[in-house]
Design goal:
Number of domains: 1
Radius of gyration: 21 Å
Oligomer: single chain
Largest sheet: none
Number of strands: 0
Structural class: mainly alpha
CATH architecture: Up-down Bundle
Helix content: over 70%
Distance between the termini: 52 Å
CATH class: Mainly Alpha
Length: 422
């Protein structure tokens, strides 16, 4: 493991440059109260993944979907706390320099290989999130336009046109050097997002009360791993847990605050997924907002969600820029590299037609490794001599579960993505 070897040099290799945990504000914020910590946890986890849950429930059945969702929520919380305990152990017992991020933790335990592995997974996950944003935006806008006009222009479908229409604006937003200038947009985007999702849930409740479609409780084992992938994606926020715990004023209560936050979020996610499926049954689409039909409120809700994801895109890409600029440009700002990353993400979005299928792919292939495998592995490497067989069994079981989901879930998602559609 090499903890003693790295301890003396960790302060040299953990430079005070902007990293994936760089705050939106230029000055370091004061320590957070329990309420602010709860709010930060909520904002860090709740994202676009919840929009794919109704379709996932359609595939898996609503009972199986809820069981998987709550199971993934518990495992995610458990693995988040493994990271916190591992960081505390290294800082207090081994005397290492302050470990601020997931990448720092990987370096402290496994050296450069550990940091590189975490960096790769963070780049893939964050870029994957942004691909899903572009899929949602382009598909939603194409759906809104298709109500009045379905003709293609220059042989390009409305989805492709809207995606490339976003491209130059994203180049501009992603050229901004610091997140400080994006903070107001982030606040507005979060407010719009929460309001829009609230309206969606209310509309779904009224539609369910009126239509009462036929529902399926269990979808079979063939879609089990698909549903787990979507659920893992929905709860992905583990990269921000160490920075959030560092900013908490009462660190002894952080575990309870995190548990409360995960409980509230999982209940909201369960309600959103179940209501969406209850409202539309077998007709539930991969992007639930396209089920809402025509009307001013429906259009405003869909536009609101698109605006939120549009301005969230550069924020989610920031960890990617931090890593690639650190590794290829010696921490220097590099405009052409940022533009290249935006281009690659846009091209990837063109290749994936289904929003929920892509959520399952990212959740199974990348988020499972970040959320389950790495935390359990790091915890085992640090605590194996202290905890003995209990540590080996618990951490080993989580790592095994993560590998199984990564292989089977990725295969299931790729099969869905490339399967011929009727």
């Amino acid at each position: 493991m090499g903890l003693e070897k790295e301890a003396s040099s960790s302060s040299y290799y953990l430079p005070t440059y902007p990293r994936e945990d760089t705050p939106l504000l230029a000055k370091a914020p004061p320590l957070s109260s329990k309420f602010k910590t709860f709010a930060n946890i909520f904002i860090s986890i709740v994202g676009a993944g919840v929009l794919g849950l109704p379709y996932s429930f359609k595939r898996t059945g609503w009972v199986m979907g809820l069981i998987m969702l709550f199971t993934v929520a518990f495992l995610t919380y458990y693995c988040m706390m493994l990271l916190v305990y591992t960081r505390r152990k290294l800082e207090s017992i081994m005397g290492l320099a302050k470990i601020n991020s997931f990448g720092d933790l990987g370096f402290s335990i496994c050296g450069p290989v550990g940091r590189f592995s975490v960096d790769i997974m963070i780049v893939l996950s964050q870029a994957g999130f942004c691909v899903s944003y572009l899929i949602f935006i382009s598909n939603t806008l194409a759906y809104l336009v298709s109500k009045t006009n379905t003709a293609s222009i220059l042989g390009l479908t409305p989805k492709v046109l809207f995606l490339w229409g976003c491209f130059p604006f994203q180049l501009g937003l992603n050229s901004i050097r610091t997140l400080t200038h994006l903070a107001p947009l982030s606040i507005v985007a979060d407010a719009v997002d929460i309001s829009a999702k609230g309206v969606v849930m209310v509309e779904e409740a009224f539609i369910f009360a009126k239509n009462r479609p036929e529902l399926e409780a269990f979808g079979g084992l063939s879609v089990l791993f698909y549903g787990i992938g979507v659920a893992v994606y929905a709860f992905e926020g583990i990269g921000m847990i160490l920075p959030l715990e560092s900013e908490a004023k009462d660190k002894d209560k952080f575990g309870k605050v995190l548990a409360l936050g995960m409980t509230v979020i999982s209940l909201l996610f369960g309600a959103f997924g179940a209501l969406g499926y209850f409202a539309f049954g077998i007709e539930t689409k991969d992007i639930i907002t396209t089920n809402l039909g025509q009307g001013l409120v429906s259009t405003l809700v869909q536009l609101g969600l698109c605006i939120n994801l549009f301005f969230t895109f550069p924020l989610m890409m920031n960890p990617v820029y931090e890593i690639v600029e650190r590794r290829f440009c010696h921490y220097r700002y590099c405009l052409w590299l940022r533009w290249l990353m935006v281009l690659l993400v846009s091209l990837a979005a063109l290749l994936v037609p289904n929003f929920a299928d892509f959520l399952s792919l990212v959740g199974s292939s990348v988020c499972v490794v970040l959320g389950f495998v790495f935390p359990a592995m790091f915890h085992y490497l640090v605590f194996k001599e202290e905890l003995g067989w209990s540590c080996i069994i618990s951490d080993g079981a989580i790592m095994l579960f993560g590998f199984i989901i990564a292989v089977t879930g990725t295969w299931s998602s790729l099969t869905e993505i490339f399967a011929p559609k009727a």
